[in-house]
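Usage

Read records sequentially. Each one opens with the input sequence:
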Amino acid sequence: MVKRKRGELAIDARRRSQEQAARLGGQLATARRRRRLTQRQVGDLVGVARSTVSAAERGAGASLTLDTWQRLGLAVDRPLIVELQRDRLEEPGDAGHLAIQELILRLARRAGYRTSFELPTRPDNPRHSVDVGLRDDRRRRLILVEAWNTIGNVGAAVRSTNRKLAEADALAASIWGEEPHAIAGCWVVRATRANRHLVTRYPELFAAMFGGSSIGWVRAIEAAGDPPGAPGLIWCDVRATRLFAWRRASAGSATVGSATAGSATAGSASAGSASAVKVGAGSATAG
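and closes with the structure output:
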């Protein structure tokens, strides 16, 4: 917080009050004339002299009380609204989601990717975008990463990812032309208790959707390794400071844990070249 001297604060407050009074006065005068009311009629309704209404409309109403301004506003059907400016220290509403995106972008940039924030998968319709796009021009790869702070509707989220992967093929063709290219996608999910419980509750569902090696996907983002041949799910810690693999127990239940360098996840795909795939729908060779 920037420290301010009392005198500086008083000068700034006086200037702001005068600006606000001038703006309110203009709005009051416009609303009164629009309703064909005289200053005296408004004053009688509010309980102040005509001269007070006149002064307020000229921008000289900075010393009027909030109650008087509220009554003036109500007299012309324009109730007064007073609020403090947005707190600069307040986190944005999607701060959790942004923190995951920031982590992915930072790690991918270090790995050598060209990164995109909210990459439109359909350039003609920017509303359709993926949270993070990772582009490897040397190997002609485009990776779509979806960041999840909370997952509200799993089915809708999967359908959205499938659509974006399909749209991304045309996007990749516009970048690299007729040259062979590869498209891959994964989810990065905040490892909150609620998200861990969701994945644990539906182990077969998530295993079917995300057959790609979680360890392989961590390497693909952090070290530009070959993306697995199927979509994957990886965790980020609650503070969004690191990525770690989703480890599936041999019995089929999902657990959260840090990946060891040599471990493999049940049902994981080998970390080969990426292919254009739909989540949970098998893989198809990219054009």
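Summary fields computed downstream for this record:
- The first helix runs from residue 6 to 34.
- DSSP finds nine helices and seven strands in the chain.
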